[in-house]
């Protein structure tokens, strides 16, 4: 549980920095839209200039709203991982003490690998519960480093395509994925 508490602190710091950055960029975009309206209302730009700049700003606003929503999704996913970890920790000791042989095997498999029995003592190479998330985070960062900065909604679709092709990001999903909708 101590490890989860530390990981939660790291996750909260990371998420809050990302959220602050997205919010600042969103506010800048809204100011640009407001300035565009002011320029048109005061006659400083023509209708053509207004119509030429408007779609670009609207696309940027939509992209930033999606990034803000993604941060909210990240909170939900982290909460789900924490809940699963709590449930496992709370039930594992009792299930291991009083459970069936199969339940005990499941608990040991969930805890780690490289089971070694020596002098009637069992040694386990324990994996941290969120090791999978660490791998996913590294993969996402690597994908973003390979891409140019997002400037349009179309580029966001490219990232979705790359994510859907990454075996690390798809690990544990149903092999018979069906289209949504």
Word description of this protein:
The protein has 181 residues and is mainly alpha-helical. The chain has 2 domains: 1-86; 130-173, no CATH class. It contains 6 helices and 2 strands; from the N terminus they run H-H-H-E-E-H-H-H. It has helices spanning 2-41, 47-98, 101-111, 131-146, 153-165, 167-170; strands at residues 112-118, 121-126. The protein has a two-stranded antiparallel ribbon. Strand 1 (112-118) and strand 2 (121-126) form a beta hairpin. Helix 1 runs antiparallel to helix 2. The longest helix has 52 residues, at 47-98. It is rod-shaped. Residues 170-181 have low confidence and may be disordered.
End-to-end separation:
39 Å
**Strand tally:** 2
- Given the C-alpha coordinates, what overall shape results? rod-shaped
In what order do the strands lie side by side in the largest sheet? 1-2
Secondary-structure content class: mainly alpha
Number of domains: 2
- Low-pLDDT sequence parts: 170-181
* Share in β-strands: 5-15%
Major sheet description: 2 strands, antiparallel
Helix content class: over 70%
Oligomer: single chain
Mean pLDDT: 75
Cα-based radius of gyration, to the nearest Å: 24 Å
Q: Please tally the helical runs, counting DSSP H or I stretches of 4 or more residues.
A: 6
Series of secondary-structure elements, N-terminal to C-terminal: HHHEEHHH
């Amino acid at each position: 549980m101590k490890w989860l508490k530390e990981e939660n602190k790291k996750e909260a710091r990371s998420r809050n920095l990302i959220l602050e950055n997205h919010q600042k960029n969103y506010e800048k975009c809204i100011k640009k839209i407001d300035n565009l309206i002011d320029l048109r209302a005061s006659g400083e730009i023509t209708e053509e200039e207004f119509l030429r700049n408007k779609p670009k700003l609207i696309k940027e606003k939509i992209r930033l709203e999606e990034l803000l929503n993604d941060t909210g999704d990240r909170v939900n996913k982290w909460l789900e991982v924490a809940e699963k970890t709590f449930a496992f920790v709370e039930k594992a000791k009792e299930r291991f003490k009083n459970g069936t042989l199969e339940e005990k095997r499941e608990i040991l498999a969930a805890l780690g690998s490289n089971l070694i029995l020596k002098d009637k003592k069992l040694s386990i190479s324990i994996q941290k519960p969120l090791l999978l998330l660490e791998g996913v985070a590294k993969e996402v960062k690597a994908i973003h480093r390979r891409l140019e900065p997002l400037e349009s909604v179309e580029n966001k679709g490219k990232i979705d395509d790359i994510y859907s092709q990454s075996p690390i990001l798809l690990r544990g999903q149903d092999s018979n994925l069906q289209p949504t909708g």
